[in-house]
Write a structure and sequence with these properties.
The complex is a heterodimer of chains A (135) and B (320).
Chain A lengths: L1 H28 L6 H21 L2 H9 L4 H9 L3 H13 L7 H18 L14
Chain B lengths: L1 H23 L16 E2 L13 H12 L6 H8 L9 H10 L3 E4 L4 H9 L4 E6 L8 E10 L4 E6 L2 E7 H9 L5 E5 L10 H15 L1 H14 L4 H13 L3 H14 L4 H13 L3 H14 L4 H16 L6
Antiparallel strand pairs in B: 1-4, 2-7, 3-4, 3-7, 4-5, 5-6
Helix pairs in contact in B: 2-3, 7-8, 7-9, 8-9, 9-10, 9-11, 10-11, 11-12, 11-13, 12-13
The chains are: A mainly alpha (135), B alpha+beta (320).
Amino acid sequence: MEPLRRRARTFTAVVVTSFALVSTGLPAAQAATISTTAMMHQSDIANQRAKIGAMLKRQDVRKELLKLGVNPADVQARVNSLTDQQVQTLADRMNQLPAGGDSLLGVLVFIFVLLLITDILGYTDVFPFVKKTVR
Amino acid sequence: MLDQVFALTRRHLRAGALLLVAALTGCAAPGPPRPVGPHTVELSKVPFFPQDSYQCGPASLAEVLSFTGVPVHPEALEPYLYLPARKGTLQAEMIAQARRHGRLVYPIEGSIAAVTAEVAAGHPVLVLQNLAFSWWPIWHYSVVVGFDPDARTVILRSGEQARHQEPYELFRRTWTRAKRWGIVVLPPGQLPATATAHNYLQAAAALEQVAGARTALPAYRAGVTHWPDSAPLWIALANGLQAQGDLDGAEHALRAALDHDPSNAIAYNNLAMVLADRGRWSEALAAVHHAIALGGPFLEQFRNTLTTIRCRQRGDCPSR
């Protein structure tokens, strides 16, 4: 029994160490050449940031924000300071939305967008995926 | 009187049930062939594999793959595509399988104009349709192989029909209910008629990930020929060439990227690595200093490049 347990412990140690090696080894092993995938990912993030920015420039969005007492320029600045990860998450959520027309759906999308923005600002707390700005 | 009403209802129900069956199998009843207009475009060389009950995914993909010169039967694709539990195929699996066969997959923009432009250029378009309702979907893959602009019909390889003619309006409705999903499948080196440089690069890079640099290189080459001022395409080409050990070609491509976009930090960084591989240390250091001066989101990696080049020049890089 005892040798078996010892062997099991050794096995565990080997597995844990190799996992640790793999996970820490990856960034170091990364060549200094920027891969095509990394380059594409970065340009996607930039595009998404621009898309969110364009949405904030919409006249109806600005008007509603002002009504809520939020300065649109302030919001833009906060969006600019979101991390890549956050931008990605926001864009994913926005892409899951059906394209809004002028129907009820359009209204729902509009409300979603507003709440998203006020969430980012820390005025509201509707979406758990939005990292709140500490105020 | 009441009996009559019931009879009527029953008859309606029966008619409804028949319609239902037709929809479930994903095949409209074959109608008489319409006369073909003078401006009709039709890719008659696209093969046809009549599908079994639920196998429209494998059949459609086999049709477009065979057309591009990959001789493959739906049965061969089925194990990789068909999900018995869902009685169907996921779009992501279709794309992955096409790439695994070394083909470039380009998702088209969701408009009839894009579909007809691709078909007119000789590219059949694999589409997903929802033949029923949004709340009760019947998914169906088919291949647009032609269209008649005068009669406003598309010609589809669909289900058990080799030449199914469908009015634009009906096609638009069933296609819209499937979020207008459509792809063209091409041999690397051929350009989609409706491609943008950015989306094309994405398609080529995805192909490279699945099928390797050697397969994707013709796609990058065709890309830079068509969009010579796209620095990202030149960089992707250079990365592919470098992976193949063609340092000369990689250097040339990166210099082309910088010709068109002198402020491209990534191009400078990667050029530095290529030059270092060729032992041209001072040029490599100059290039990486350019990259660091330009900065950007990859600044950390640029600094890493500098460290790597310096230690390689000294020959004392720590072996990882």
